[in-house]
Amino acid sequence: MARVSGKNSWALLLLILAGIVLGGFIGYLAKDISGFSWLNYGQNFSLGDTDGAGIIRLNLGVMVISFGLSIKITIASIIGVVLAIIIYRKL
Known about the structure:
Blueprint: H1 9-29, E1 42-47, E2 56-59, E3 64-67, E4 69-74, H2 75-90
Antiparallel strand pairs: 1-4, 2-3
Helix pairs in contact: 1-2
């Protein structure tokens, strides 16, 4: 990624990732609180089997390694991304 108008796009990427992680964590913590349970509402997206075994399997005889990807997007993580972008623009 290149520098865009004097700002580092790696910083934007790190802020967005931090927003996703912190938003997901806050959504997880708020799932049992009646007024804030809506923050944990979201959708799962995954590549691989529904049991989490992964899409690519590497059988080495002694062990089996599975590779896959699963992403859960929640309302709180979307809010975290929006806040990360606002913080980036203010810097």
